[in-house]
Amino acid sequence: MHGPASSGWLLVALCAATGAYCLLRMRSSVEEQRRAAGGEALMGFGMAAMAVPAAAFTPPSWAWPAYAVVFGAAGLHALWAARTHVRHLHHLHHLVGAGAMVYMAMVMATSPGHGHGGSGIPPLTGILLLYFTAYVLATGARLVPVPAAAGTGGSARWGDRPELARACRLCMGVAMVAMLPAM
Questions:
Q1: What is the CA radius of gyration of the chain?
Q2: C-alpha distances out from residue 9 to 44, 46, 74, 115, Å
Q3: 35 near 24, Cβ under 8 Å?
């Protein structure tokens, strides 16, 4: 990513911490948490790697197409999951997120030193910015503590808490809003 190094490192830390928490959620006893956590961990770590400031590390030329392949596969997985689990709209959000990662990787692969080239925000970037801004606002509004599930003694394991999962999704949405115009 191009832009100030301090904000890049903050994005790296935020996304890596989110990815690490999502890995812990993969050990959840709640099946739905486990299912979503793997894709979210991939997204968190992928965003962390992509947010490393260009002044600190310039990835080899093959890295951007590799990102595109990995997140393209993640997008196909999200599409398949959305087809089989129609009730779960978060699969469609994963599809949009994976598509945004593919898009950013391809932009960086075609012009690694210039991002968008300084000619304003392209329409697809603008659409993605609008989507992720709306997602952040909606997720933030829903970010209130949820009562613990029955049978947990009034205290759910911290990896099973839905509000923490929403907070992670909110963090990744904010990071996406920061990363898109910084390409």
A1: 17
A2: 14, 14, 25, 18
A3: no
Does 125 or 4 have the greater pLDDT score?
125
How many Cβ atoms from other residues are within 10 Å of residue 154's Cβ?
9
Residues 65-108 pLDDT 10s: 999 999 999 999 888 888 876 666 777 888 999 999 999 999 98
Backbone phi and psi for residue 150, each to the nearest 5 degrees, phi listed first: -65, 145
135: tokens are 């997602």
- Phi, psi at residue 121, to the nearest 5°? -90, 120
**pTM recorded for the entire structure:** 0.83
Domain that holds residue 69: 5-182
Return the DSSP state at 52: S
Our count of domains for the chain comes to 1
